[in-house]
Design brief:
With 195 residues, the protein is mainly alpha-helical. It has helices at 3-14, 28-40, 47-70, 81-100, 105-108, 131-140, 143-160, 162-194; strands at 112-119, 122-127. A hairpin with a 2-residue loop joins strand 1 (112-119) and strand 2.
């Protein structure tokens, strides 16, 4: 069967309406269950747990915003490039530390299974469990998934607790720079050995 025919039949399946409820109307729950079924294509995905985790993120961001407004914290018209660079480096480094570092594996242990090493000082872990356990496991083993959480925390912290946040962000940025130097030194040593 051609790809076009497959997509057409998939599209047609998407439009098969879920069953009607007692009053002849489709319930929101039935519509969501239908969309989940179409999305998953037979593979169990913790979509409801993803939605709950997204809700927690939105609630946390809202709480930070409400706290800043309550404290009448002025929002700067612009963020200095240096601050943005430090927060960016810290966010990237901290997300990798949480998601991949052997030292933080006890945090991930309830949600993952050790598989081996994935790089210098980084672990490969398989997410385990179902539902919320699986969804949290995917979040905390994915540096890209952790980035919005950490960026929001650091930016919010820079408004609400600037001195403490500056120290945390600067530490993360320094560690990122030191790691880059370690990789460069290792690459030069390998190049010398191969020459």
């Amino acid at each position: 069967m051609s790809d076009a025919a497959t997509h057409t039949s998939d599209d047609a399946r998407d439009h098969v309406p879920p069953e009607r409820g007692r009053r002849g109307r489709r319930s929101v729950a039935a519509l969501l269950a239908h969309q989940k079924h179409v999305y998953e294509q037979g593979e169990e995905r913790p979509v409801g747990s993803y939605a709950a985790i997204s809700g927690v993120f939105v609630a946390a961001a809202g709480a930070l915003t409400a706290l800043a407004r309550h404290r009448r914290v002025p929002v700067p018209a612009a963020v200095p490039w240096g601050d943005a660079a430090v927060i960016t480096l810290a966010t990237a480094q901290l997300s990798r530390i949480i998601a991949k570092d052997p030292i933080t594996s006890p945090l991930r242990m309830p949600f993952t299974r050790f598989e081996g090493r994935s790089g210098p000082a980084e672990l490969a872990e398989e997410v385990r469990g179902v539902g919320p356990r699986h969804a949290v496991g995917e979040l905390i083993t994915c540096p890209f998934c952790l980035t919005p959480w950490l960026a929001t925390a650091l930016v919010g912290g820079s408004l609400l607790a600037p001195r403490f946040t500056r120290v945390v962000a600067l530490t993360g940025a320094v560690v990122a720079g030191a790691d880059a130097l370690q990789f460069a030194i290792s690459a030069m040593q390998r190049a010398d050995e191969e020459a």
